Amino acid sequence: MKGITFEKMDGSALKVGIVVARWNSVLTYSLRDGAIQGLKDSGVLDDNIVVLEVPGSYEVVFGAKHLIETKKVDAVICLGVLVKGETMHFEYISDAVTQGIMDLNTTTGIPVIYGVLNCLTEQQAEARATGDNNHGYWWGKSAVEMALLA
């Protein structure tokens, strides 16, 4: 099975932002909960987890920038779920969000975790956003590791 392992980390001094899209909220809220658990398991204190909801995945980039500029976070996790439909909308949004998150990483000096699922089917998204395979958990741990690196 694919996966990643993490050494024990002490994130108790970190402040981490989570930007979560409300579009596909059943799945994005599950990812949010997984990310929060990953942060807590890495020592991040409840009071140092800042959650901001935005309408959709396209808006997570602006939300992340807002948290960096106003909440002085040490890392941001961007959470969204995009599922391919019958039009090109999926490709445009996926590309824009990917580029926006990468730009924030290179211009702000703050780690911004790419927690946007880009799936071909709803079943693929559900398999990655729920249960024991909730990718949000690992994105939470990734945020701590990268914030400690910065």
TrEMBL record:
<comment type="pathway">
    <text>Cofactor biosynthesis; riboflavin biosynthesis; riboflavin from 2-hydroxy-3-oxobutyl phosphate and 5-amino-6-(D-ribitylamino)uracil: step 1/2.</text>
</comment>
<dbReference type="InterPro" id="IPR034964">
    <property type="entry name" value="LS"/>
</dbReference>
<comment type="similarity">
    <text>Belongs to the DMRL synthase family.</text>
</comment>
<feature type="binding site">
    <location>
        <begin position="86"/>
        <end position="87"/>
    </location>
    <ligand>
        <name>(2S)-2-hydroxy-3-oxobutyl phosphate</name>
    </ligand>
</feature>
<feature type="active site" description="Proton donor">
    <location>
        <position position="89"/>
    </location>
</feature>
<dbReference type="InterPro" id="IPR036467">
    <property type="entry name" value="LS/RS_sf"/>
</dbReference>
<dbReference type="GO" id="GO:0009231">
    <property type="term" value="P:riboflavin biosynthetic process"/>
</dbReference>
<feature type="binding site">
    <location>
        <begin position="81"/>
        <end position="83"/>
    </location>
    <ligand>
        <name>5-amino-6-(D-ribitylamino)uracil</name>
    </ligand>
</feature>
<dbReference type="InterPro" id="IPR002180">
    <property type="entry name" value="LS/RS"/>
</dbReference>
<dbReference type="GO" id="GO:0000906">
    <property type="term" value="F:6,7-dimethyl-8-ribityllumazine synthase activity"/>
</dbReference>
<feature type="binding site">
    <location>
        <position position="128"/>
    </location>
    <ligand>
        <name>(2S)-2-hydroxy-3-oxobutyl phosphate</name>
    </ligand>
</feature>
<dbReference type="GO" id="GO:0009349">
    <property type="term" value="C:riboflavin synthase complex"/>
</dbReference>
<feature type="binding site">
    <location>
        <position position="114"/>
    </location>
    <ligand>
        <name>5-amino-6-(D-ribitylamino)uracil</name>
    </ligand>
</feature>
<keyword id="KW-0686">Riboflavin biosynthesis</keyword>
<feature type="binding site">
    <location>
        <position position="23"/>
    </location>
    <ligand>
        <name>5-amino-6-(D-ribitylamino)uracil</name>
    </ligand>
</feature>
<feature type="binding site">
    <location>
        <begin position="57"/>
        <end position="59"/>
    </location>
    <ligand>
        <name>5-amino-6-(D-ribitylamino)uracil</name>
    </ligand>
</feature>
<comment type="function">
    <text>Catalyzes the formation of 6,7-dimethyl-8-ribityllumazine by condensation of 5-amino-6-(D-ribitylamino)uracil with 3,4-dihydroxy-2-butanone 4-phosphate. This is the penultimate step in the biosynthesis of riboflavin.</text>
</comment>
<keyword id="KW-0808">Transferase</keyword>
<dbReference type="Pfam" id="PF00885">
    <property type="entry name" value="DMRL_synthase"/>
</dbReference>
<protein>
    <recommendedName>
        <fullName>6,7-dimethyl-8-ribityllumazine synthase</fullName>
        <ecNumber>2.5.1.78</ecNumber>
    </recommendedName>
</protein>
